[in-house]
């Protein structure tokens, strides 16, 4: 399958990993949008949040658990962070393999600032 993140899972495209287990990997985003910016992805190819099925629900728990472990390892657990999934066109999803952004290391601004764009 021609999927960038599947290639990162396989290792044919290199990544700077924070952690890896049987189900998920966490690696640094190539274009960080904050001092801490990592991506949490399942090893299983799931195109987007829309394609998550009930059989995938334990995997979503694994993703949260890995996100928390990554936040600890990267030293942002206490200061706080944001976990984001971009889905589909309006979500500006660009890589069609389920992933969650973990951002931290600075004050990220309130989500309400987004509301200005559709007033
Ligand atoms: P999306 O916009 O789909 O939510 O997020 C995709 C993310 O993948 C972007 O933040 C982008 O910087 C990151 N990305 C794209 N290509 C690569 C790559 O080859 N390696 C890494 N580590 N991140 C990538
Ligand atoms: Zn994939």
List the main descriptive attributes of the protein structure presented here:
binds zinc ion, binds guanosine-5'-monophosphate, HIT family, subunit A, alpha+beta, 119 residues, 20% helix
Characterize this entry briefly.
The chain is α+β, with helices and mostly antiparallel strands and 119 residues long. Helix content is 20%, strand content 21%.
At the first level of CATH, the class is Alpha Beta
Specify the CATH architecture.
Answer: 2-Layer Sandwich
Q: What is the N-to-C succession of helices and strands?
A: HEEEHEE
* N- to C-terminal distance: 41 Å
CATH topology: HIT family, subunit A
Bound molecules: guanosine-5'-monophosphate, zinc ion
Report the total helices: 2
Poorly predicted residue ranges: none
Mind explaining what this structure looks like?
The chain has 119 residues and is of the alpha+beta class. It has a single domain (4-104), classed as 2-Layer Sandwich (HIT family, subunit A). The protein is 20% helix and 21% strand. The protein has two helices and five strands. The chain has a five-stranded antiparallel sheet with strand order 1-2-3-5-4, covered by helices on one side. A hairpin with a 7-residue loop joins strand 2 (24-28) and strand 3 (36-42). The longest helix is centred in the middle third of the chain and has 17 residues, at 57-73. It is globular. Bound molecules: guanosine-5'-monophosphate and zinc ion (ZN).
């Amino acid at each position: 399958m021609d999927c960038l993140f599947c290639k990162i899972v396989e290792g044919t495209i290199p990544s700077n990993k924070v952690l890896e287990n049987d189900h998920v990997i966490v690696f640094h985003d190539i274009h960080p949008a904050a001092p801490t910016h990592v991506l949490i992805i399942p090893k299983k190819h799931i195109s987007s949040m829309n394609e998550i099925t009930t059989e995938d629900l334990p995997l979503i728990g694994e993703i949260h658990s890995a996100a928390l472990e990554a936040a600890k390892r990267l030293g942002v657990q206490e200061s706080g962070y944001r976990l984001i999934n971009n889905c589909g066109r309006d979500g500006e999803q660009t890589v069609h393999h389920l992933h969650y952004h973990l951002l931290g290391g600075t004050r990220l601004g309130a989500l309400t600032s987004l509301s200005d764009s559709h007033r």
